[in-house]
Amino acid sequence: MKKLIAAGALLTGLSVSSAAFAADCSTDVKKDDLSDEQVQSLYDCIKTELREGYASKGGELTAEYSSWKAASTLPAAPGVHSKRFLFTFVNDIGFDEYVKYSDERGPMPVGSIIAKESFNVSKKGKVKKGPLFFMTKAAAGGEADKYGNWVYAAFSTKGKVMKIKQSFCHDCHKAFEDQDALGYPVEDYRVSGN
Ligand code: HEC
Q1: Burial of 6 (0-12, 13-18, 19+ CB in 10 A)
Q2: CATH assignment of the domain containing 136
Q3: How many domains does the chain have?
Q4: Is 99 in the pocket of ligand 1 (CB under 6 A)?
Q5: Average pLDDT over every residue of 167-182
Q6: CA of 183 relative to ligand 1 center, distance in Å
């Protein structure tokens, strides 16, 4: 039932975006030359399909994250995560803390979940959907102790759980040691915390 309502909401979104943007979600502007507005248009064009795909296997988080508050103003391309455009969302438990973007933070509250949508633009100017990434803050005393109490997860564009190694994600994230292993969106696109 929950799923049906979500699908309905997604369909409503679709009719708006497909009227306003090219149906094939492509551009003749080179990826590095895209303006913020052009990135936003491409995102608006694939957004419904992207979210539908992530949510299609019925995963609880994959359906829920898009109702959380966004921590970036626009999908930005920071040159990591395979140079994809990334769009970050944080659940209620973590949002206020996350958007301080502190570089001297203690640990994020247990139960904080951060989600990150991703997409790319091919050489031919076509938008390519990318995986959905999650970091969940666990209580101390478990498996995640080795990884700064973060549990990492990723879902394919079809909503499938991707086999990832916690160490693969954390080996890079732990470089942000003063930020509780968080990379944060590039500065120009951060949602203000107050
Ligand atoms: C090569 C380094 C690198 C690897 C490997 C990496 N990340 Fe990230 N990740 C980053 C950086 C840098 C950011 C911040 C950039 C942004 O969000 O715009 C980030 C951001 C994130 C965020 C948003 C929270 C934050 O840090 O601000 C999530 C969630 C995330 N990554 C999950 C994952 C998962 C899951 C994996 C493993 C499948 C992974 N990452 C692997 C570098 C990496």
Answers
A1: middle
A2: 3.50.70
A3: 1
A4: no
A5: 96
A6: 6
